[in-house]
Write a structure and sequence with these properties.
Blueprint lengths: L2 E6 L3 H11 L5 E7 L2 H8 L6 E4 L8 H7 L5 E6 L5 H6 L4 E4 L4 H24 E2 L8 E6 L2 E6 L3 E7 L2 E6 L3 E5 L2 H5 L7 E5 L2 E4 L3 E5 L2 E4 L2 E4 L5 H10 L2
Parallel strand pairs: 1-2, 1-3, 3-4, 4-5
Antiparallel strand pairs: 6-7, 7-8, 9-10, 9-13, 10-11, 12-13, 14-15, 15-16
Length: 239
Amino acid sequence: MSIRCLIIDDEPLAINVIKNFLVNFEKFDLKGTCPDAVEAFNFLSKNEVDVIFLDINMPKINGLDFLKSLSKPPMVVITTAYREYAVESFELDVVDYLVKPFALQRFMKTINRIEHRLEEKKVNRSEVNLPVENERAHVFFKVDKKMVKVYLDEILYIESLKDYIRIKTYDESLINHNNLVSVAELLPPDEFVRIHRSYIIAIKKVKVIDGNQVEIGDKLLPIGRNYQKDIKDLLLGLS
């Protein structure tokens, strides 16, 4: 199965570099190139892709604002000449951050990261158990080589630990090899929300909103800068 790619960049030379790199990897299929975010938006309304190679400084709309506008973005690799946007980019769950000019050897690491994330998604989908009638919704997570059933209504929050996550319930703290992007796809969006690059929370478990923090159980969790307005609007709208 091919990995469908889209390049969004206003520099023809930068586009050609990525195109020439991609031809070295058989699984990767370039579906198109766009010189700006508006054209990319129209392209994505008609085509599905698995990964976007996205420049930041472009005319009309910059790359990060474009990424924030997507309700269900595919995987994204930032390709830019500027280092200062790295923290903000990783808060938006990009797969990688490439600083131009980058060599093929560095690009190969990006390819590995993309393939690894796709494999994690396949595993996660195979671990999902849809509830039958009268059964509580749950997901199976691999913990210490065992498949552990976790009921969704018992989850307080999920924390990112680099290549692992911690699922915190009322009674347990479970460690699973995963990432928040993949886990978020398993959870109902009306019950769970991302509040930070390191945290997903159960909306109904929030006890207190204290400035840029929320209290769940006995723990205060930070609300990331890029999430603050939407999260506060959501939580306060439920009160």
